[in-house]
Amino acid sequence: MTFPFSIAVHGGPLTSAAEPLSAERDADLRATLARSVTVGHQILASGGDALDAVVASVKVLEDSEYFNAGRGSVLNAKEMVEMDASVMEGKLKQVGSVAGIRHIKNPIELAREVMLFSGHSLLAGDGAEAFAFERGYEFSEQDYFFTDHRYDQLMRLKFAAKGSPTDLDLLALSECDLAEEGKADDPVYGSVGAVALDQHGNLAAATSSGGVANQRFGRIGDSVMMGAGMLAENDLVAISSAGPSELLIRHRVASEIAARTRYFNEGAKTASDFVVSRVLKGPESDGGVIAIDHLGEIHSTLSGAGLYRASVDIQGKLSIKLFANE
User: Fold this and answer.
1) Structure pTM?
2) What keywords are assigned to this protein (predicted)?
3) Pairwise CA distance, residues 262 & 253, whole Å
4) Which of 115, 239, 240, 306 is most buried, with most CB under 10 Å away?
5) Residues 6+ apart with CB under 8 A from 265
6) Residues 6+ apart with CB under 8 A from 31
């Protein structure tokens, strides 16, 4: 027996405080999202696993500078990249997570390795990277992840926190300058993610993040936490979350949505709308979720100006949206 299959991806929130996107940036974002979801859909169409599909889709987003994951990750207070990622498959409810990754280009692939080959569910920091090198992953210098606009973003945050005049020379690139370059939409937090249902009826979810700009060294966010940043359970729902990490953790957003579908018999859309409206409200709470139910129906719910998202539904229709009013 084969099941209908579908996939959805997100690239994190467009914050309410963001400047309008330039036409070039808008087009590039849509093209990257389309490439991401298409890569995953091709795997599903060929009979591949939902887990492989979500990992492949997220990898595309990690390789882009546009999103807060992988290549585009924000910098922490020590001017370094520290990345988190996780995957979950819905059949056996296996989870693989990595935290504090600094030298691996695609943490989402390493998260899958942890799930399949480590004998554990979560590895962090030096231990996670040692495991990666054992598995044949290449060491990547921090220079690979470093981008000028993320450094400028960090310097502005440090200046705002300390008000030190000595930082002024590092703040020459103003918000107006960033807007002209199409960079002012970069939030200080965010993640990327994917959810999928394959032809075997298996659900999977994946989430990857660079964390929060200027975060403390060693901070770990919701992206590695099953039930907060992601969740997948066959015959129920697969979810990937985006938004302020501490809120998603405290309110167990993905778990709450899944619980409402299971115990209240709510549809994934109704459950997602309820939880997001309850948790992501007020200033600095832009975010949302993408979800796929056991029938392959795709749902997205957001709070704020927008959520970068794309999907291919069970009819094979491609949809790409950036803003709340699309």
Assistant:
1) 0.92
2) Autocatalytic cleavage, Hydrolase, Protease
3) 14
4) 239
5) none
6) none
